[in-house]
């Protein structure tokens, strides 16, 4: 599954340039660009990402999986669906970028209660900033964040930064694996 997802990411979500050509959120220029949404919103990509992320969290004894909207949303839903298929149901949840200011004021949408163990996920980690925000917001709502999983690690310090907030952090696919696959399949 991982190899197939890597190939799909290379076709739909990964861009590479010999010179820094892609502007990142930080404003910095990079040789690599990863936008996982075309892959995680694709039926096969959703299937693969969901199963691989569920496999990465299944031993953590969590009741929920989610992260900052929108990057984490399709992955969380896919992982929750995969958990149901494997008779180990885990709830999906979404963390808002701005707190809901009406009704029940909160950061998180989903069927979770304070004290429950959860895994925070993200589509891509560069510095880990959005994953860390998700961890902090989940904790502010009383959730016990015990694991973080990133679909693609750009290998620029993000996992190390996230690890300062939750010890158990992993990535499904690394930038090096994407570059290796991209190089193997790139047409001259």
Automatic annotation (TrEMBL):
Broad EC category: transferase
Positions with a binding annotation for 5-phospho-alpha-D-ribose 1-diphosphate: 96-97, 100, 102, 122-130
Reactions this protein catalyses: orotidine 5'-phosphate + diphosphate = orotate + 5-phospho-alpha-D-ribose 1-diphosphate
Obligatory cofactor(s): Mg(2+)
Gene3D superfamilies membership: 3.40.50.2020
An example Gene Ontology biological process: 'de novo' UMP biosynthetic process
Family to which the UniProt record says this protein belongs: Belongs to the purine/pyrimidine phosphoribosyltransferase family. PyrE subfamily.
Function of the molecule: Catalyzes the transfer of a ribosyl phosphate group from 5-phosphoribose 1-diphosphate to orotate, leading to the formation of orotidine monophosphate (OMP).
Name assigned to this protein: Orotate phosphoribosyltransferase
Gene that encodes it: pyrE
């Amino acid at each position: 599954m991982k190899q197939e997802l890597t190939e799909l990411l290379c076709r739909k979500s990964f861009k590479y340039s010999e010179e820094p050509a892609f502007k990142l959120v930080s404003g910095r220029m990079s040789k690599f660009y990863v936008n996982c949404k075309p892959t995680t919103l694709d039926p096969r990509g959703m299937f693969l990402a969901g199963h691989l992320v569920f496999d990465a969290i299944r031993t953590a004894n969590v009741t929920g999986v989610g992260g900052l909207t929108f990057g984490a949303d399709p992955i969380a839903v896919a992982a929750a669906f995969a958990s149901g298929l494997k008779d180990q149901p885990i709830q999906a949840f979404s963390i808002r970028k701005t707190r809901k200011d009406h009704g029940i004021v909160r950061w998180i949408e989903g069927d979770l209660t304070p004290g429950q163990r959860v895994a925070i996920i993200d589509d891509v980690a560069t510095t880990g900033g959005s994953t860390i925000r998700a961890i902090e917001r989940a904790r502010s709502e009383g959730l016990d964040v015990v694991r973080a999983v990133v679909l693609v690690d750009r290998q620029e310090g993000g996992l190390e930064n996230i690890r300062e907030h939750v010890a158990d952090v992993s990535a499904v696919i690394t930038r090096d694996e994407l570059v290796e696959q991209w190089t193997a399949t790139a047409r001259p």
